[in-house]
Design goal:
single chain; 484 residues; mainly alpha; 94% helix; disordered C terminus; coiled coil
Length: 484
C-alpha cells in the first residue's frame, strides 16, 4: 500500500504531467487573456496602420511569425498532453468504457481542432500572401498611375509648349507676310509713280523738243528777216548818201549837168527800179517809195525841161521834197534801227530761251536717264519682292500643311490622352476593387480571428475539463488500489 501510495504520489507529482499541465495552463491563460487579445489588438492595429502607410509591413510580419510560433507551441503542448493521456489511458486499464469513450472523443476533437488549426493557419497564410500580392499590385498600380500621370503631364506641357511655339511662329510668319505684302504694295506704288513720272518726263521732253523746233524755226525766220532788214537799211543808207551827195552837188552844177545827172540818175533809178522789181518780194514798201521818187523825178525833169525859168522854184521844191524824203528816210532808218534792235533783243531772248530750253532738255534727259535707272532698279526690286512673295507663299503653304499635320497629331494625342485617361479610370476601378477585396479579406481575417478566439476558448474549456477529469481519475484509482 505504501508502494502504491508512493506510486500514486509519484504519478501525481510527475514532472511531465505538472509541466504539461502548467504549460497547458499557461498556454490556456495566454490564449484566453493575454496573447489572444494581444494578437487581436496587433491585427487590428496592423489593419489600421496598413491603411495609413506601407511602413508597417515588417511589424505585421513579426506579429504573424509570433502568432505562428504560439500556435506551434500550443500544438506541441497539445501533443504532449495527448501523449500523456495516451500513456495514462494505457496504464489505466481499469478505466471504465465511458472514460475511454470520452477520451477518444476528446482525442478526435483534438485532432479535428488540430486539423482546423492547420487549415486556418494555411488559410491565414494564403490570405496574407494574397493580401501582400494585392498590396504589391496596388502599389505597382499606384506607381504606374503616378508615372502615367507624370508622363501625361510632361507630354501635355510639351504639347502646350509646341502649340505655343507654333502659334508664335505662325504669328511671326503672318506679320512677315503682311510686312512683305506691304513692301510689295509700296514697291508697286513706287514703280507706278516712277513709270508715271517717266512718262510725264518723256512727254515734257517731247513737248520741249517740239517747242525747240518751233523756236528754232522762228529764230531762223527772224534771222532771215533781220538779214532782209539789214539789206534794206544798207540800201536806204546808200540811197540817202547818194541823194545827199546829189543834193549838195546840184548847187554847183549847171543845169545841163544837173539834167545829165538827173537823166543819169533816172537811168540809174530805172535800173534800180528793175532791180527792185526783181526783188519786189523782199522790199515792196521801199520799191513803192522809190517808184514814187522816180515818178517825182521824171515829173521834175519834165518840169525842168519845160520850164527853165522856174528852175529855182522847182529846185527849192525839190530841195524841200528831198529834205522831206531825207527826213522820212532818216525816220525810216531810225524805225528800222529800232526794229533791228528789237529783233536783236528778241533774238537774244530767243537764244537765251533756246539755251535754257537746251539746258532744261539736258536736265530732262538726265532726269529721264535717272528715271530709267530707277525704273530698272524698281523692276529688279519688284522681281526680288515677287520672288520673296512666292517664297513666302510657299512657306505659308508649308506652314499651313504643318499646321494641319500638327492639328491631326494633336487630335491623335488627345485621343491617346483620352485612352490613357480611360485606362487610368480602369486602373482606378481595379484599385478600388482591390481595396474592396482587401477590406473583404480584412473582414474575413477578423472573422477568422474571432472564430479562432472562440475555438481557443472551447479548447481551453476542453483542457480544463481534461485536467479536472484527470484529477478526478487519479484519486479514484488510488482508492481502488488501496482497497485492493
Amino acid at each position: 500500500m505504501a508502494s502504491f501510495s508512493r506510486t500514486k504520489e509519484t504519478r501525481s507529482a510527475s514532472p511531465l504531467r505538472s509541466s504539461a499541465s502548467d504549460n497547458l495552463r499557461r498556454s490556456g491563460s495566454f490564449g484566453k487573456s493575454g496573447k489572444d487579445l494581444h494578437l487581436a489588438a496587433s491585427f487590428d492595429s496592423r489593419s489600421r496602420k496598413h491603411t495609413r502607410s506601407s511602413t508597417s509591413n515588417a511589424e505585421i510580419g513579426n506579429i504573424e511569425n509570433e502568432y505562428i510560433r504560439n500556435l506551434q507551441q500550443q500544438i506541441y503542448f497539445l501533443e504532449l498532453e495527448a501523449n500523456y493521456l495516451r500513456e495514462q489511458a494505457r496504464k489505466a486499464s481499469a478505466i471504465p468504457p465511458r472514460v475511454t469513450e470520452e477520451a477518444d472523443r476528446m482525442m478526435r476533437k483534438l485532432r479535428d481542432l488540430q486539423s482546423q488549426v492547420d487549415e486556418r493557419s494555411s488559410d491565414v497564410a494564403r490570405k496574407e500572401s494574397q493580401l501582400h500580392m494585392l498590396e504589391a499590385e496596388k502599389e505597382s498600380a499606384i506607381k504606374r498611375l503616378r508615372e502615367m500621370e507624370e508622363s501625361f503631364a510632361a507630354e501635355k506641357r510639351q504639347l502646350v509648349n509646341e502649340i505655343v511655339s507654333l502659334k508664335k511662329m505662325a504669328d511671326i510668319h503672318g506679320r512677315d507676310h503682311a510686312r512683305r505684302e506691304l513692301q510689295v504694295h509700296q514697291y508697286k506704288s513706287e514703280a507706278d509713280k516712277g513709270l508715271t513720272a517717266l512718262q510725264e518726263a518723256e512727254r515734257k521732253v517731247q513737248n520741249y523738243r517740239i517747242e525747240l523746233d518751233r523756236k528754232t524755226e522762228d529764230l531762223n525766220k527772224l534771222r532771215i528777216e533781220l538779214e532782209e532788214k539789214r539789206a534794206e537799211c544798207l540800201k536806204v543808207k546808200t540811197q540817202l548818201q547818194e541823194m545827199d551827195d546829189k543834193f549838195f552837188d546840184s548847187q554847183t552844177k549847171t543845169k545841163e549837168e544837173l539834167g545829165r545827172a538827173l537823166r543819169e540818175e533816172i537811168r540809174q533809178l530805172r535800173l534800180q527800179l528793175k532791180e527792185k522789181e526783181i526783188n519786189a518780194e523782199q522790199d515792196r514798201s521801199l520799191r513803192n517809195k522809190i517808184q514814187d521818187d522816180c515818178t517825182a523825178l521824171i515829173k521834175e525833169n519834165a518840169a525842168l525841161s519845160a520850164q527853165d525859168r522856174a528852175h529855182k522854184d522847182k529846185k527849192d521844191f525839190r530841195r524841200q521834197a528831198n529834205i522831206q524824203e531825207l527826213v522820212t528816210l532818216k525816220e525810216n532808218e531810225k524805225h528800222l534801227q529800232q526794229e533791228l534792235e528789237r529783233i536783236q533783243e528778241v533774238l537774244r531772248l530767243e537764244q537765251q530761251k533756246h539755251r535754257e530750253t537746251l539746258e532744261k532738255l539736258s536736265r530732262e534727259e538726265q532726269a529721264s536717264l535717272e528715271a530709267n535707272l530707277k525704273r530698272n532698279q524698281l523692276r529688279n526690286e519688284l522681281n526680288e519682292v515677287e520672288g520673296q512673295h512666292d517664297s513666302t507663299n510657299t512657306e505659308n503653304v508649308a506652314l499651313k500643311r504643318d499646321k494641319f499635320l500638327l492639328t491631326d497629331e494633336v487630335a491623335n494625342l488627345n485621343a491617346k490622352l483620352d485612352e490613357k485617361n480611360e485606362e487610368m479610370e480602369r486602373i482606378k476601378l481595379r484599385l478600388e476593387e482591390s481595396e474592396a477585396r482587401y477590406s473583404q479579406m480584412e473582414s474575413k481575417v477578423r472573422m477568422q480571428r474571432s472564430l479562432e478566439s472562440i475555438k481557443w476558448e472551447e479548447f481551453e474549456k476542453l483542457a480544463t475539463t481534461m485536467r479536472e477529469f484527470s484529477r478526478s481519475m487519479s484519486p479514484s484509482k488510488g482508492g481502488s488500489l488501496v482497497d485492493y
